[in-house]
């Protein structure tokens, strides 16, 4: 009975969100990826496919370190953890940045970039808060804490997990995540179909901790990034529960209907 009730609530929420988005009357963007999980401790997100979404592909290329290049069906181009060193084939419309290390941001982004979204706030006591609609893409963030470089002291809200909602897909980039997530974080993130996760064994988090985050988020496709040296040890943490493959192409093309039924750790070319 409880499972049926939860399924009914999720269905109502999905239909309501779609109606609000189509009406154009909502002042704030409506997330198709956030679940009603605020009151559900230890929730593990299920993967589902809204029937009304047109099946169009998103293209993802790994440029290096923590920088991926996304191309949406509507032509929005995005570079993640952009530092100016790993250049995409075209000037992106949107870049996201985090500040834990200098390899995840730049102080001099190309002026032609229309949207520069920082994962931190320069105002003391405030946190970054992004709710941006660019073309066919809704971009939002969930802040986490970081260890200050050098001192190791914790800095509140110094990192952002960026979530890109486009073509019915929920795509998340963990940035430079330094601690395991709380129930509140998971609820705010919601469902993820594609997850970009740093693998390094300690510069962000230990492999045990990072693998627990990945398992809990339960994305269909997991794309490792950051440092490849400990990749094999990271894969061992899943004990065969997730499939593993290497991308055979530079560009990974994904649509809602092409998502694997079983979670897949897909190692991008160049990692």
Question: What can you see in these coordinates?
Answer:
With 271 residues, this protein is an alpha/beta fold. It has one domain (56-267): Ribonuclease Z/Hydroxyacylglutathione hydrolase-like (Metallo-beta-lactamase, Chain A, 4-Layer Sandwich), CATH 3.60.15.10. It has four helices and 14 strands. The protein has helices at 2-23, 183-189, 207-217, 231-236; strands at residues 58-64, 67-71, 77-79, 94-97, 115-118, 131-134, 137-147, 154-166, 169-173, 194-199, 221-226, 243-246, 251-254, 264-267. The chain has an eight-stranded mixed sheet with strand order 6-7-8-9-10-11-14-12. The chain is globular. Mean pLDDT is 86; it is low at 1-26, 36-40 and 45-51.
Helix content: 10-25%
Overall domain count: 1
Distance between the termini: 46 Å
CATH topology: Metallo-beta-lactamase, Chain A
Strand content: 25-35%
Q: C-alpha Rg, in Å?
A: 18 Å
Q: Numbering strands along the chain, what is their spatial order in the largest sheet?
A: 6-7-8-9-10-11-14-12
User: What's the number of extended β-strand segments?
Assistant: 14
Mean pLDDT: 86
Task: Offer a few descriptive terms.
271 residues, alpha/beta, Metallo-beta-lactamase, Chain A, eight-stranded mixed sheet, 4 helices, 30% strand, globular, disordered N terminus
Task: Describe the secondary-structure layout.
Layout: H1 2-23, E1 58-64, E2 67-71, E3 77-79, E4 94-97, E5 115-118, E6 131-134, E7 137-147, E8 154-166, E9 169-173, H2 183-189, E10 194-199, H3 207-217, E11 221-226, H4 231-236, E12 243-246, E13 251-254, E14 264-267
Parallel strand pairs: 3-4, 4-5, 9-10, 10-11, 11-14, 12-14
Antiparallel strand pairs: 1-2, 1-13, 2-3, 6-7, 7-8, 8-9
